[in-house]
Amino acid sequence: MTLQHFMNEAISPWMREEGPDSDIVLSSRIRLARNFSQVSFPILANQEDLEEIHQFFQKEYNDKSFQDNKSFGFVAIRDLTPIEKRVLVEKHLISPHLADQAQAAAALISENEKISVMINEEDHIRIQLYFPGFQLNKALKKSFEFDDFLEEKVNYAFDETRGYLTSCPTNVGTGMRASVMMHLPALVLTQQINRMIPAINQLGLVVRGIYGEGSEAVGNIFQISNQITLGRSEQDIVEDLQSVVQQLIEHERNARNRLVEQSNTRLEDRIYRSYGILEYSRIIESKEAAKCLSDVRLGIDLGIIENVQRNILNELMVLTQPGFLQQYAKKTLTANERDILRASLIRERILLEK
Length: 354
Hints:
Blueprint: H1 3-8, E1 25-34, H2 47-61, E2 73-76, H3 82-90, H4 96-99, E3 106-109, E4 115-119, E5 125-132, H5 136-151, E6 158-159, E7 163-164, E8 176-183, H6 185-189, H7 193-202, E9 205-208, E10 221-226, H8 234-280, H9 286-301, H10 312-319, H11 322-329, H12 335-352
Antiparallel strand pairs: 1-5, 1-8, 2-3, 3-4, 4-5, 6-7, 8-10, 9-10
Helix pairs in contact: 3-11, 8-9, 9-10, 11-12
Binding site for ATP: 27-31, 92, 126, 177-181, 208-213
InterPro entries: Arg_Kinase (IPR023660), ATP-guanido_PTrfase (IPR000749), ATP-guanido_PTrfase_AS (IPR022415), ATP-guanido_PTrfase_cat (IPR022414), Gln_synth/guanido_kin_cat_dom (IPR014746)
Enzyme class: transferase
């Protein structure tokens, strides 16, 4: 599996699939942090040790398969251009932190892009597994199976009392972050989200933007994940998150119904204005594009806009990011050039729906 395979398409193959509650929940993710025993964690390890781990994964897993996840590709971060790194970040296949790492950083990515393994990031191993829609339990089961698959050849750093040992104390224990990506435009429009976020934080969960910690919730997309990893089982953590997400789904659906009942003309006007901007703009900045795409996705989900695919939001949210725009253009672009190309690509994509 070559690097170009992961660069060619803005949308990962699994994102084209429908999942439970996919009108609101875009994806479910399980991330597991693991480290080699008898090797210093990346923050303290010498370059030789990290290079050995790099070479181990390249030798043992490049072009290998796991169940229905075919042909893993090994990507050395040091071999990537800045634009290629940015594209992988925009597709959520690697983290911004891994993209900034030194010589021994790498990623192992399945052909369908459901599984990616970040190597020598904050920990030696960070497994990410994605499913479309609201499928946390299925993602958890599959992550356990893949974790066991790696553990056949890797001796993990593990303590009987503390659990899995990690670079950051907040990951010690299960080493797990469970998260869902949610599209919550109605809760934003009705301003209910402002009082919900503090309540969610008090339950030991955290609400972030589309690219995780420190990122902004552009396009009304929020990432909800657990904060506590120590003293609780993985299943308990997932059940707590599922309970909160289910309530958010219900609140979002109720807010959408109220918007339709109480201000349908105003809502339709907002949606069609955004659709018009996307269809006819010759220059558009990323934040405006994200806002308009969110409105159009809401219009599709409510049946106001017909004959447009629901995954247009997923696809264009990646396609219109700076890294992918420059990958598409095959050159570095100024901000103004990106805004012009972004508008052009959006118009072309909408035209395909007609």
